[in-house]
User: Fold this.
Amino acid sequence: MNEFVEQFLLESRDLVAQATDDLLALEGKPDDRDRLDSVFRAFHTLKGAAGIVDFAAMARTLHAAEDILASIRTSGEAIVPSVLDECLTCLDLTSRWLDAMEANGKVPTGTEADADDMISRFAASLETNARDRASQPAGNDWLERLRVDPHERTTGPRVALRYVPDADAFFQGQDPMEVIAALPNLLKLDLALRDPPASLEAMNTFSSILDIVALMEASAAQVRTALIGVRGAMDIRELASSNAPVEDGRLTATSLLEAQLLVLRDGTADGLMGRLASVGRTAVNALAYLGQSEAAAALGGAAATAQATLSAAPLVEAIERALTGDGRQTSRGNTTGPVRAVRALRVDMSRIDTLVKLTGELVVLKNAIGHVAKLSQESAGPALLATTLREQHALFNRLTTELQAAVLGIRVLPLRSVFRRFPKLVREIAGSVGKTVKLLVEGDDTEADATIVDALFEPLLHVLRNAVDHGIESPERRAAAGKEAAGTVILRARRDVDNVVIDVEDDGGGIDLTRVRAVAAERRIASADVLAAMTDSEAVHLIFAAGFSTAATVSDLSGRGVGMDSVKTAVERLGGKVTLETTPGAGTTITLLLPFSLMMTAVMTVDVAGQAFALPLDTILETTIVGRDRIVPIGSSHAVVLRDRTVPIIDLAEMLGFSPGLPSQGVAKIVVLSVGTQIAGLVVDRLGERMDVMLKPMDDLLAGIRGVAGTTLLGDGRVLIVLNPAEILV
Amino acid sequence: MTAVLHDASTIRLFGVCSAQDAEILLQLLLTHPAAEIDWRDCESAHAAVIQVLLVAGRALRGPPRGALLSRLVAPAIASN
Assistant:
């Protein structure tokens, strides 16, 4: 990727993050002018940046957003929820585009349709905005006036319009009847008077008091075009056409997704690129229609990958996942991948200043040590030397500690950067299951290592989704239990010594332990005896067991448990752990305990006796293949001559207690390690791949095992043991 | 002028009725409280005129000549 694009991505992501922050702040305080100005500037700058890299679709979309924000700025009115939501959706779309661009290093293709879609959504939100501002109530009652027969067969889409001309419309030279005459395919008309005068005598013929409702067989866009320049309050509603009622929309979207799979499975290579682009677009739209914005986002990513690699596989997988999991389990596949390290970081200037200051002090200390060296030459007394050295060691100790803290601090980010995406997602999830849920965020300025913050999004989303979907009861059940109709979920973060603690607390119904035990028994998670011996607090943790929940139990399991094992895996991969507390009837709290900082260790995997092990990459000198006959016994051990150097050979399998001795035929694969001054070659069965892992040290009973540095989890959930060469070679 | 008193019991609307005709129609209706309205020769009418017809609630002799008036506006007024 060229530097220019890299810079664009970096800056754009910052702007998207900033605009998201501002929009979410505006949600709580819609008349905050400073925030509005800031959002406007962010969109404006983003648009400019998109123009510079020739990303036309992105520039066009952001331009539409900027126009709306500009009009709100000049009108001096507060931003309405519909516009705010569309702006956030636009930022999500922009993020997806940026992801796609990052994946293949150039402006993604096939973005025009998404841009068109977004722009028309902005137009619709403006209308809602106008309706919200109109003096007339904007309820749905007026639709009744049309007395639309739902069984009447029509061929196209139908649109209802309510049009209340301004009182001075006649003075302005407008004739609302002409407006009506110009409407496309008018089917029905209803005329009413707002404020009818008591009698003809009291009537003022110069003032419009009409309240018009019309039904048309046309698209909303056609109707909007016909209404350009017309003054007055207007409300346009798209009605379900009788051939495709709204209820069937979900089915249509689902079958659309299935159809996309057929298109992708068509084996011919002709036009694959085009097919991938169009399938991706259709599937994203279908999922967006179903209200599964996360699944849509994930699919967008998969489509970009598919296009970049010219392979249908990622897309097929993403669509299948969306279909089988009904979009709810989409993140699961991703959580099992390796932890992705953050590539670029924006660092607060003050942190760099601290580093500069510490470096300055280190230089002073260096000079002071030089002075001591001189003193020792000039044969100063050992007592004086010892005192001076001790003082300087203390100073050096302080400086290195501070330096280490400062360097670690550079990798630190506030959790806000991941938390801020949740309020909107929680609202959407709650809406999709017919609940009202308040998400309270606390302690979002708590900091953690950037890698952890980045990897937290998916597991946290999973936990939050479970809290909303299964934790919080339906409004009826809440009312019956004497609770407030709206559920509350608290997302709370705090720092606890070397850990970051994140609680997700809901005031729902708690977990039904009898049910958990029953399900665990049914799914053979544990034997009946073991289950019977478990305390309640042990039993509740069964929901984290792999295989406890499947998509089929989503709807009938009261409580949680949907894919919680994937949360556990993801958190453990980060070196953390998950705990859970539940009180029947009062709610559940899930706590993620994560290390404050973590460093990635680069390792190389090797196979020995059918099992994978890893060796720290920084100890590996080289890998090589030699004939077995070149390995010669020396005393009780073996050695090989490599580049004129005798290298002791250790059979890793034998050392780990797997197989007896070295066969004398064929070739041997050797990893040459260097620790300190020692060199040795390890014979392995297969050389694996290089990967970055989060090392988890062995604890409790296993802490004393020699030769093992720690463990980490592989993408498929297997435990990978990382060996410690320093202990192997000694 | 397109709104005229035809006889003591009929007010006729014909051709294209403009915004100004609304006031004339209103005066005719006030001075002839029993008159019905004959709009069979009416091609089109300004919204101000339609508004007067709605408030007056008088009997309308139709159908009017204009397509929009006869197909959609007349039924809408009749249903009020």
